[in-house]
Design brief:
Number of helices: 11
Strand content: 15-25%
Helix content: 25-40%
Largest sheet: 5 strands, parallel
Shape: globular
Radius of gyration: 22 Å
Bound molecules: flavin-adenine dinucleotide
CATH topology of the largest domain: FAD/NAD(P)-binding domain
Strand order of the largest sheet: 6-3-2-10-22
Number of domains: 2
Length: 420
């Protein structure tokens, strides 16, 4: 077992949005980040990576480039021992014990699943880059399958796509993938005339609950105009290999059910002995210090963060909040901790086909201006100028050339001789 001391005494668990920004903002003070991957995933661009508008590599930012003053330990965090101030990590080179003075827990969230029959077996997730590539491949495979069958009912089933969860992830992924299918179908002359069906299901009374009502209604109208069947106030009852049944009793023949109905704190956080709320999130004080602790801090999707600007409410699980919390925490770790306070400046979402919605400083934009503002905002937020340039290049190429419809199913290949 290897023993190491965290750089600058600060150990950051998780190289996602929150953890990577804390490390970046600590700058030359340095820290050690423990992460499964050597990159930070810019999740708002994941739907575009799935649809092929963006090259998947361009929606991730290498941690060593983003946080040049931090040490990186790649591996799986298995244990936190507060009495000896050590964290155990499984790495490719074996077990490592990392000692800290300050610990930052930023382990994010996992998909929240429910005990719905068939969900675990047949639903597809949409949480990380592997999910995005798998979903893209699956959708392209459905076109191939539809093209090769004789029975029109089976072809229709392959071209039926059901998304459960109408938050950012579900709405943007559906809109982007519907664009991919529309563009790809020009190469499938046999499928002309075969009906496609896109269904968006949510238990809530409206889609995009985070967005002001008028913009949310506009988004729903836009999707409906394109033929998306928006089912609000509806839940998923069961999933089978070739069908999904909704709470209104309809059984939809489909081979694609995408589950994006919410997240819950990463379960391992519950094994660290830290105070948790009823949703399994780490309870922190307004300074982002874990309650009843002095040297353990938490933020992002795995934490229950009170916000001075919205008394009595806790922050929702979004990048915008994770980033603002990271700014406060980096300052607090340097000394003289102050309470976290952030008033949201706006919300943005794309709806595919050069349409979007944006609510910025109380001004509301929709259609093309909404889409343009959404893209500009994400470009501004994406760290590193080299990443921004790659994304702009992808978008520019997308304006002039047809979308790439190559399937990348060989990504699970091990690369070992004989593995084919
Ligand atoms: C598809 C999708 C689209 C989204 N779109 C938007 C959007 O448009 N706008 C918006 O504001 N928010 C959006 N979000 C939400 C946003 O991504 C999260 O709120 C944000 O990523 C939270 O940051 P975090 O650091 O807390 O968690 P994460 O970014 O999830 O990072 C947690 C990290 O911890 C790592 N980890 C967990 N367990 C371990 C372990 N045992 N060992 C080592 N590492 C571990 C994970 O691998 C991950 O890298 C979206 C989310 C998804 C999934």
């Amino acid at each position: 077992m290897q023993h190491r001391h965290a750089k600058g005494g600060t150990l950051v668990l998780g190289g996602g949005f929150a953890g990577s920004y804390v490390a970046r903002l600590l700058g030359k003070d340095g820290c050690t980040i423990v992460s499964r991957e050597n990159f930070m995933l810019y999740t708002p661009s994941l739907p575009e990576a799935a649809s092929g508008t963006l090259e998947p590599r361009h929606v991730v930012v290498p941690l060593r480039m983003m946080c040049p003053h931090a040490d990186l330990v790649l591996g799986e965090i298995t244990e936190v021992d507060e009495s000896s101030r050590q964290v155990s990590v499984d790495t490719e080179a074996g077990g490592v014990q990392l000692e800290y003075e300050n610990l930052v827990v930023a382990l994010g969230a996992v998909a929240r699943t429910l005990p719905i029959p068939g969900l675990a077996e047949y639903a597809l997730g949409f949480k990380d880059l592997a999910d995005a590539i798998a979903l893209r491949n699956h959708v392209l495979r459905q076109l191939e399958a539809a093209d090769s069958v004789v029975d029109p009912a089976v072809a229709r089933r392959h071209l039926t796509f059901v998304f459960v969860g109408a938050g950012y992830a579900g709405v943007e992924a559906l809109a982007e993938l519907a664009d991919l299918v529309r563009d790809a179908l020009r190469y499938y002359p046999r499928l002309r005339g075969v009906e496609q069906r896109w269904v968006l299901v949510d238990a809530a009374a409206k889609i995009l609950p985070e967005i002001p009502t008028r913009l949310g209604d506009y988004a729903a109208r836009q999707l409906e105009k394109r033929g998306v069947d928006v089912r609000v106030g509806t839940t998923l009852d069961s999933v089978e290999e070739h069908a999904a049944t909704l709470s209104d009793g309809e059984r939809i023949e489909t081979d694609t059910l995408v589950w994006t109905a919410g997240v819950r704190a990463t379960p391992i956080v519950g094994h660290f002995g830290l105070p948790l709320d009823e949703k399994g999130r780490v309870k922190v004080s307004p300074t982002l210090c874990v309650e009843e602790r002095e040297n353990v801090w938490s933020l992002g999707d795995c934490a229950r963060v009170p916000n001075e600007a919205t008394p009595g409410q806790f922050d929702p699980p979004t990048c915008q909040h994770a980033l603002r919390q990271a700014r406060r925490l980096a300052k607090n770790l340097r000394g003289d901790p102050k309470p976290y306070r952030y008033r949201m400046l706006g919300q943005v979402a794309t709806l595919g086909r050069h349409k979007g919605i944006a609510d910025v400083l109380g001004l509301r934009f929709r259609g093309f201006p909404g889409w343009f503002i959404t893209r500009t905002y994400h470009l501004y937020q994406l760290p590193l100028i080299t990443r921004k340039l790659r994304v702009v290049t992808d978008w520019t190429v997308g304006l002039f050339f047809r979308r790439d419809i190559a399937e990348l199913s060989m990504l699970g290949h091990t690369g070992r001789p004989g593995d084919d």
